[in-house]
């Protein structure tokens, strides 16, 4: 009799909601890309930084970051969980604003992105990289 195959563990890091969280998330993503032999991690670092920054500024509680491949050697997915109920939205372009363009930029660089609620409260904001 063969033992059942176990699903691979998804690389995960739990971050405190501090201004250091985006830097730690970028380093975490860069390490995963290096493990997978992916040389260009620029867009991935930008995406995880934006999602973690939003969770830090607008969410609640610890921030959970998961980085994984959707399929065998397929596109990389980034998920950022937080306990906040608010949902990120792309704002209309405001040339005078000093912030608020991150999601718009991110949305143009990824294959897809979205938000889904968690059963226990909070949300997961995700992005699938090209």
UniProtKB/TrEMBL annotation:
Entry keyword set = ATP-binding, Kinase, Nucleotide-binding, Serine/threonine-protein kinase, Transferase
Q: Does the keyword ATP-binding apply?
A: yes
Q: Name one Pfam family in it.
A: HATPase_c_2
One GO molecular function term of this record is: ATP binding
Q: InterPro entries recorded for this chain?
A: Anti-sigma-factor_SerPK, HATPase_C_sf, HATPase_dom
Annotated Histidine kinase/HSP90-like ATPase domain ranges read 19-127
Q: Note whether Repeat occurs among the keywords.
A: no
Question: What is the designated name of this protein?
Answer: ATP-binding protein
Traced from the root, the source organism's taxonomic lineage reads:
Bacteria, Bacillati, Actinomycetota, Actinomycetes, Streptosporangiales
């Amino acid at each position: 009799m063969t033992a059942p195959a176990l699903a691979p563990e998804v690389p995960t890091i739990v971050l405190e909601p501090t201004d250091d969280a985006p830097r730690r998330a970028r380093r975490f993503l860069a390490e995963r890309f290096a493990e997978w032999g992916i040389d260009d991690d620029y867009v991935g670092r930008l995406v995880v930084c934006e999602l973690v920054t939003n969770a830090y500024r607008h969410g609640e509680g610890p921030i959970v970051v998961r980085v994984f491949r959707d399929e065998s050697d397929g596109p990389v997915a980034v998920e950022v969980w937080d306990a906040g109920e608010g949902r990120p939205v792309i704002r209309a372009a405001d040339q005078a604003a000093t912030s608020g363009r991150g999601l718009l930029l991110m949305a143009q660089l990824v294959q897809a992105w979205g938000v889904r609620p968690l059963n226990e409260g909070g949300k997961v904001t995700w992005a699938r990289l090209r």
